[in-house]
Write a structure and sequence with these properties.
Length: 352
């Protein structure tokens, strides 16, 4: 493995860009989500074990200090990313990874929901080709921003962040543990043996559900040629959250019907099917009650036929629904956002 001469400087530059992105966007979250994300970010930054309670006073002081740092950085430009004697723009992901992958590192830089940039630098665990795409699987993270999407598709590459996935899972289980409600998450945890050994079960979940997340990103890649560059233009044009949430939910449902659900059903992956429906919520679920009904039928009967049929129907339905949103945008770009947002309030014409 080739040595990297300026690793500390690289980490510092990527982390600074993460801080700048957070300074501009982090406080746009709801207060509840903001505090949850800040707790998890503190845990990562201070290397606090997942099961250990956080020190309340120190956490409060750290939040105040971090917000002061953001205030100081908000107007700054993103730094170039230095790798040895070269430097790259923060979004030149392909070029940066061409230099970092031989050194056992991987870098991510792109835009997520609501136009927020996300950056990370991590240890590369493996990289391979899947369905014509590059797949990068990372472990320990050296730099990251407040929100850490566990998986993403960017310019012909899938990024799976196992550390971010592990932390996201633990937070989800902690929230569920307050009431321990019945439902898909409880079934998934029981399937993985969480009650007997939480830490061992968490590692099994990370291992198995890494593949589920990869399948979803592969589904998004399958959706791209069906929708074309016009879909990316549509998403980029949206300024309001309601319209973007609806559009992304339509595309997510299409990706799952093209890839995630067919593969899980084919493998009869019981634990992963429960896990998928533990995260089937919000607008995605509102738009697709047929799929929730199929899941309930499977739980009662053990027969996968209804799930299989729902996924098959969904692949055609969500493709057409996405094309309808595209036609709305192409016919009148100025009015499209209002029309898409209105459908989020009354989505009956899109529901399957």
């Amino acid at each position: 493995m080739m040595p990297l001469s300026n690793f500390p400087r690289l980490v510092q530059s990527v982390q600074r860009n993460c801080h700048i992105a957070d300074a501009r966007h982090a406080r746009e979250m709801t207060l509840c989500n903001y505090l949850l994300e800040m707790r998890e970010f503190y845990r990562w930054e201070h290397e606090v074990p997942l099961a250990r309670a956080l020190p309340r006073q120190e956490l409060g002081n750290w939040i105040s200090e971090r917000e002061a740092l953001w205030d100081a950085l908000q107007a700054d430009d993103l730094e170039r990313v230095p790798v040895d004697e070269h430097s790259y723009g923060a979004f030149e992901v392909g070029a940066i990874n061409a230099a970092l992958v031989p050194r056992g590192l991987v870098y991510g830089g792109g835009y997520g929901r609501f136009g927020k940039p996300h950056f990370f630098l991590a240890q590369l665990e493996r990289h391979e080709q899947r369905q014509g795409l590059k797949l990068f699987v990372s472990g320990c993270e050296y730099a990251r921003d407040l929100s850490a999407p566990p998986a993403s598709l960017l310019e012909g590459a899938v990024f799976l962040r196992r550390d971010a996935l592990r932390r996201w899972l633990w937070e989800k289980v902690e929230i569920w543990g307050v009431r321990k409600a019945d439902g898909a998450l409880k079934s998934a945890l029981e399937c993985y043996g969480f009650a007997a050994d939480a830490e061992a079960a968490l590692e099994r979940i990370v291992e198995e559900e890494s593949e589920t997340l990869i399948l979803h990103e592969l589904g998004e890649a399958m959706a791209e040629p069906l929708l074309g560059a016009a879909w990316r233009n549509l998403i980029a044009s949206l300024n309001g959250r309601r319209a973007e949430i609806l559009a992304r939910a339509v595309r997510d449902n299409l990706a799952d019907c093209l890839s995630t659900l067919p593969r899980l059903i084919e493998r009869e992956a019981t634990c992963s099917i429960h896990f998928h429906f533990a995260n089937f919520e919000g607008m995605r679920a509102t738009l697709f009650p047929l799929l929730d009904q199929a899941y309930r039928s499977w739980r009662e009967s053990g027969n996968l036929d209804h799930l299989r049929a729902a996924a098959r129907a969904g692949s055609a339905h969500w493709h057409e629904a996405a094309l309808r949103l595209l036609r709305l945008h192409q016919s009148d770009p100025a009015a499209a956002e209002e029309g898409i947002a209105a459908r989020s309030e009354n989505p009956a014409t899109l529901v399957l």
